[in-house]
Amino acid sequence: QVQLAESGGGLVQAGGSLRLSCVASGSTFTINFMAWYRQALGKQRELVAGINNAGTTNYADSVKGRFTISRDIVKNTVYLEMNSLKPEDTAVYYCKQIDWSGYDYWGQGTQVTVSS
């Protein structure tokens, strides 16, 4: 079992920055993929960025060049650095990690609100 705890959300003006953190605890040695998703009000949850154990990253087109996903293996933490934020980035952001059996673990979510 893996437990995830996100932090770092908040209210920011357009053009501003935030850094989200997701700390994993439990059987973290089983994890081979980590990602950030987001869900805006009335919309489906979507992948924002992902990173695997090799450090390979992928991003949604809407955030390329503005967001950066990274991880600290020692701290069992994955980060999402968000720059040049736009009102359309407003959403609840979720951390997701997948273990070697393909099982998904989700965090409780953290709200990001970008004002215009």
Quick summary of this structure?
By secondary structure, the chain is mostly beta strands.
Structure description:
With 116 residues, the protein is mostly beta strands. Helices cover 0% and strands 59% of the residues. It is built from no helices and eleven strands. The chain has strands at residues 2-7, 10-13, 18-26, 31-39, 46-52, 57-59, 67-72, 77-82, 91-99, 104-106, 110-115.
> Which residues form runs of ≥5 with pLDDT under 50?
none
Q: Give the radius of gyration.
A: 13 Å
Helix content: under 10%
Q: Describe the largest sheet.
A: 7 strands, mixed
Structural class: mainly beta
What is the tally of helical segments?
0
Termini separation? 40 Å
Number of strands: 11
Mean pLDDT: 96
What features would you highlight for this structure?
seven-stranded mixed β-sheet, 59% strand, single chain, 0% helix, 11 strands, 116 residues, mainly beta, four-stranded antiparallel β-sheet
Describe the secondary structure blueprint for this structure.
Layout: E1 2-7, E2 10-13, E3 18-26, E4 31-39, E5 46-52, E6 57-59, E7 67-72, E8 77-82, E9 91-99, E10 104-106, E11 110-115
Parallel strand pairs: 2-11
Antiparallel strand pairs: 1-3, 3-8, 4-5, 4-9, 5-6, 7-8, 9-10, 9-11
